[in-house]
Amino acid sequence: MRRSSCARSCVHGSDLDASCDLLPSHCNWTAVDRTPQLPTFSTAAKVRVIVTFILCGISTFCNLAVLWAASGHRRKSHVRVLIVNLTTADLLVTLIVMPVDAVWNITLQWLAGDLACRFLMFLKLQAMYSCAFVTVVISLDRQSAILNPLLISMAPKRNRIMLMMAWTMSALLSVPQVKMYFIS
Asked: How many domains in the chain?
């Protein structure tokens, strides 16, 4: 899933037996025999995990509160649809990206196999892309509302098309994470 920059520097060279003497100083090498040290669950990593889980809990609560508030109104607004989509994308980040990163910091290694890794990377990328793309849709909607206020009746259809494109693009741009597994 994730390889240290030290290992990446050696593996991506033209010669796999090449020396790692040119590696950055932050790599985990012992001074005596130049063998790699295993990563450890340091105090900084523990703090990072605790903070990540606290933020994950707060974010989940707040996003669910926004979804609940947005669903309570009878009148459907095109802006409310945008807010619900952004909140859904934020929940994906909260429930996929944050816990995966926290667990990665706890375990320090990947034990679930290549397919599970690729699937989680697909979900992580889709969550991040969807959040960014829905934000762009909201920006385009607000720009249109300011520049063309008399075309407000076209906003729901235009936003629905843009949201479908945003979610589709987020899925399509995430596919290479899974596709490489089935090709090799």
From this structure: 2
Phi, psi of 180 (to 5 degrees): -60, -25
Taking 3-state DSSP, the helix, strand and coil percentages for the chain, each rounded to the nearest 5, stand at 75, 0, 25
- 132: Cβ–Cβ under 8 A, 6 or more apart, which residues? none
Quote the pTM value.
0.73
Give the domain range for residue 32. Answer: 1-38
Question: Are 104 and 161 contained in the same domain?
Answer: yes
- AA letter at 104: W
Residue 60 and residue 88 share a domain: yes
Task: Report which secondary-structure segment, H or E, holds 6.
Answer: helix 5-11
Q: Are 11 and 80 part of one and the same domain?
A: no
In a 10 Å sphere around its CB, with 0-12 CB exposed, 13-18 middle and 19+ buried, how is residue 6 labelled? Answer: middle
**Residues 14 and 66 grouped into a single domain:** no
Return the number of other C-beta atoms located less than 10 Å from residue 137's C-beta.
22
Q: What is the pLDDT along the chain (184 residues), one digit of tens a residue?
A: 444 333 333 333 344 444 444 444 445 555 566 777 777 778 888 899 999 999 999 999 999 999 999 887 777 788 899 999 999 999 999 999 999 888 888 887 778 888 888 999 999 999 999 999 999 999 999 999 999 989 888 999 999 999 999 999 999 999 988 776 666 5
